[in-house]
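User: Show me a protein chain along with its predicted structure.
Assistant: Here is one chain, sequence first, then structure tokens.
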Amino acid sequence: MFKYNSGFDSEFQTEALPNALPPFGNNPQVCPYNLYAEQLSGTAFTVPRKENRRTWMYRTQPSVLHNPFEEVEGGSLSHGPFTRSNGYQISPNQLRWNPLPLPSCSETFVSGLTTIAGEGDPKCKSGLAVHMYTCNRSMINEAMYNSDGDYLIVPETGTLIVQTELGYLEVPPKFICVIPRGIVFKVNVEGGCRGYVLEVFKGHFDLPDLGPIGSNGLANARDFEYPVAAYDEVENVEGKTKEEKYNWKLINKFGGLMFSTERCGTPFNVVAWHGNYSPYRYNLEKFCCINSVTFDHPDPSIYTVLTCKGDDVGTATADFVIFPERWMVMENTFRPPWYHRNCMSEFMGMIWGKYDAKEGFQAGGASLHSCMTPHGPDYKTFKGASECELKPHKFDKGLAFMFETNVILNISEKALAAEHRDVNYFKCWEGIPNAFQGKEEKEGGEGGENKKRKIGP
């Protein structure tokens, strides 16, 4: 059972040994326990103070103890810009995938990552990528950090035990975790695991502004949980050869490419730390829904858990939105999401159960409705919602989520050609009839105005 600190974007201080943190927050000439002080900065030094994110670590050895990095060939993560020459295409079609098959061979979290779509360039710190993962093997003497951006991880099957430089996070389904840029981590698993990853190349995730909602609702800051300091036992390397000392593999996602090196001993050697730049987890069941009690279906933005703000006010690089268990109380209205086209792109996934606005959307599956691509409920859902008795109704049959972005996503050719892609997805709307039965009656003689419009037979 792991311990956590609570409070979004808070300044924490935590130590695994008593008095390991220097007094008064300063770095003395010699740190307690002969530890090394090392700062990790997640923002530029000169950003406004309220936006500055950094953490001081006190570790048994500094993180510089590694051999030169070398590029790793192959793999299914994004490699370079999301262009046709690099294996990506754009498509205005409605796209859907059935659940990604669990691995049939040994895969770690890193080797089991597959890029579905993306846009932008991590080297220019612009855009984002969407990945999925399947894994069944823990990372042993292997760790990773991402120089390109922040990872937001959404498990669907299987619990992840994420060990980071700053401590442990247990992340089962219905939880999410965020691993900020530069944080070293490894993932331990038992059995088959599957889930989704949103990677943002610019900025960091924040809580959305509540605006007219007021001071309460959606995700509360106190429910975000941060790790407490924990470190691996330091190995005795006396008498060992250089090859024996450099016994950890360290992977670095850098500029869209993957690099690896060998490092001397465990990277999880932080005995104490203080700061506001740290990984965290959140229990999606603690989300407080805001919904309509009169009419109309609210915009999905009302279900935003985290947002990565874009350059234009009110337009996000990426929003993480969920559709959880909730009461739906509306009168004289069409309750599910209406048919719509959107200037944003919507990548959806299913964590458990079924989606309330579409048949055939499975847990572990995904869909993509790009900029201005029409979408909405299938006819069975439309007909049922049009004829049902409008009374207070609790939806408790599933948990879906959405990665929403202001960019048009380029889709991996592997994802477009995947066997688990639902190539007949578009047919779910084929049965929608033209049920229009109205007629217009004109009164008032020649040039008269339209006095009455009758709907129905």
